[in-house]
Design brief:
Layout lengths: L1 E6 L3 H8 L9 E7 L2 H10 L4 E5 L7 H11 L4 E6 L4 H10 L3 E4 L5 H13 L12 E3 L5 E3 H9 L15 E9 L9 H18 L6 E6 L2 E8 L4 H19 L3 E4 L15 H17 L19 H19 L3 H18 L3 H22 L8 H9 L4 H41 L6 H7 L4 H12 L3 H19 L5 H7 L5 H12 L3 H11 L7
Parallel strand pairs: 1-2, 1-3, 3-4, 4-5, 7-9
Antiparallel strand pairs: 6-7, 8-10, 8-11, 9-10
């Protein structure tokens, strides 16, 4: 009998899983449960189980961290994640790490739990299985039929029981372009997760359409619906309906195009799966960037993948330029660097999902710089921006968001830098006043102020109009002038030592450079002029 363990920081969830069904009836024994990923890591290493059901978002250690570590130590253990639509990106990452399936917390019913574990029992080798012809009924009643639907999209006249719909309804085929970036779009397990979420959403809203989906690769999903009539207007209507339904129910950004092969519908003539994907991809990119769709000739006319290595290197260097302008509080440099990056994104027609991710990466880099500088009380943050970017359907709107984010952050930084400069320089000046009577260096003062010596040198010159060396000399000479007048009987070399000069000759030369007189001449002149002329 196989064993299973549960990991969740919610006691009620763990209890619900224990009582969800008769585990022994399906060949499993509950080995235990854990309230944190840290406890599970220790316990499961000591007492391995066949299947681990884990929450994703917990305490300091997440379910993703747990999976990543245990997957190395326990290669034969299967993982199932508990998630919600709000955590969908985490679920996809878990699937890429090796989880075999996921269970929605909002749909924690016995049928779904039983389905997952019976499938694990049936297939000992399941780790992102991508066998052709897989058909699976989920709890919503929607059907995921990968290879048969691909055959239908390529040849809609083919006879296949999987494409049969309600009596009197005709099939139409749409292509969905998944717009979320930053994932391996051809990863089978991730595609299954997206398809599951979409089928549940569509079956809830339009059950009579009997939706069937297929992973077409390249971030595209084929969708088969059954409708009363199949004409161009109906196709456009259902494309809009499907897009709105998916975004409402599943929180997944997609673009839906009536580009499928449907006999008798103008503009939707039968085509190869690859032609359908390229056609939809071109339309999605054109709509996002507000440009006419590029003619689809072959793969070379449409961007069909993520960024190349050279492109990523260029964008990394662009991020560095943005960070450079930000940490120096130079708004013009910051916005110029952002504009160059945005222009390059548009020029390359980067996929919408990747374009949003690039802007989010820029925001995160700015935020990290602000954090490293100690800038507090920011008016916005990158996580909020990520959600806003995800809702953008046009590039200009996304670009406006990053510009506003940069404006808010640079404003906070400029105020911080102004206060920081004043505070740091005053601290440095105070240190000089307290220690100028001995040998001190810029490095020593910088260390006392907890800043880099080059940075302090730049700040000091900007705030005082003098180099650090000139300021130190100025303080020493002014004190020497006071002592020369106040203590006429003290030897010049003694005064030189008191103000931090080890050699009286060096002191005398610098004194003449600053005052035009030797120390002795200066003393004689001041004494002759009287106390009213005495230096303060």
């Amino acid at each position: 009998m196989k064993t299973v363990a549960f990991v969740d920081d919610d006691t009620l969830v763990r209890a619900g899983l224990r009582t969800a069904l008769d585990w022994r009836a399906i060949g499993f024994a509950v080995s235990g449960d854990y309230a944190s990923a840290e406890d599970a890591l220790v316990g499961l290493r000591a007492h391995p189980v066949d299947v681990v059901v884990t929450d994703i978002v917990m305490g300091a250690m997440s379910g993703l961290d747990l999976i990543e570590q245990l997957a190395v130590d326990l290669p034969h253990t299967r993982f199932v994640v508990l998630t919600s639509y709000e955590e969908f990106e985490y679920a996809r990452k878990a699937l890429r790490l090796g989880a075999v399936d996921y269970i929605l917390k909002s749909n924690l019913d016995p049928d779904r739990v039983r389905e997952v574990f019976e499938r694990i029992s049936r297939d000992e080798s399941t780790h992102g299985d991508s066998s052709a012809g897989v058909q699976r009924n989920d709890t919503s009643g929607a059907v995921y039929a990968e290879r048969p639907l691909e055959r239908y999209l390529a040849d809609p006249c083919a006879s296949d029981t999987l494409v049969a719909g309600p009596a009197g309804y005709r099939p139409i085929a749409l292509v969905l372009i998944v717009e979320s970036g930053g994932t391996d779009r051809d990863d089978h397990a991730g595609s299954v997760a997206i398809i599951d979420a979409i089928t549940q959403a569509l079956s809830t809203a339009t059950p009579q359409a009997a939706p069937r989906l297929a992973n077409l690769g390249d971030g595209a999903i084929g969708l088969l619906l059954h409708v009363p009539t199949a004409d161009a207007d109906t196709m456009r209507h259902y494309a809009l309906l499907v897009q709105n339904t998916i975004e409402l129910y599943s929180n997944i950004a997609v673009s839906v195009f009536a580009a499928g092969s449907t006999p008798g519908v103008a503009g939707c003539e039968p085509a190869t799966v690859r032609e359908l994907v390229l056609r939809a991809r071109s339309a999605a990119d054109a709509r996002f960037y507000g440009r006419p769709a590029a003619p689809v000739v072959d793969d070379s006319t449409v961007r069909t993948g993520g960024l190349s290595t050279a492109e990523r290197d260029w964008f990394f260097e662009a991020e560095e330029r943005i960070a450079h302008g930000f940490v120096r509080g130079r708004a013009d440099d910051l916005h110029e660097a952002i504009a160059r990056l945005c222009d390059r994104v548009r020029e390359l027609r980067v996929r919408p999902g990747d374009a949003r991710e690039l802007l989010h990466a820029v925001a995160q880099r700015i935020e990290r710089c602000a954090h490293d500088m100690g800038v507090a009380d920011r008016s916005t943050d990158a996580s909020v921006l990520a959600k806003q970017l995800g809702e953008c359907r046009e590039w200009d709107a996304a670009r406006a968001l990053i510009d506003r984010f940069a404006d808010a952050m640079i404003g906070d930084t400029q105020r911080y830098l102004k206060d920081h400069v004043n505070t740091t320089v005053e601290r440095a000046k105070e240190y000089v006043h307290d220690h100028f009577t001995r040998r001190i260096s810029l490095g020593e003062v910088a260390k006392a102020c907890c800043v880099n010596r080059t940075y302090l040198s730049r700040l000091f010159h900007k705030a005082t109009g003098r180099t650090f060396s000139d300021y130190l000399t100025h303080i020493r000479i002014e004190e020497a002038k006071r002592l020369l007048y106040a203590r006429p009987g003290t030897y010049v070399y003694e005064i030189a030592l008191e103000v931090g000069y080890e050699e009286s000759g060096h002191f005398s030369r610098q004194f003449r450079e600053w005052t035009g007189l030797s120390p002795t001449e200066y003393r004689a002149r001041q004494l002759a002029q009287g106390s009213d002329e005495a230096p303060s």
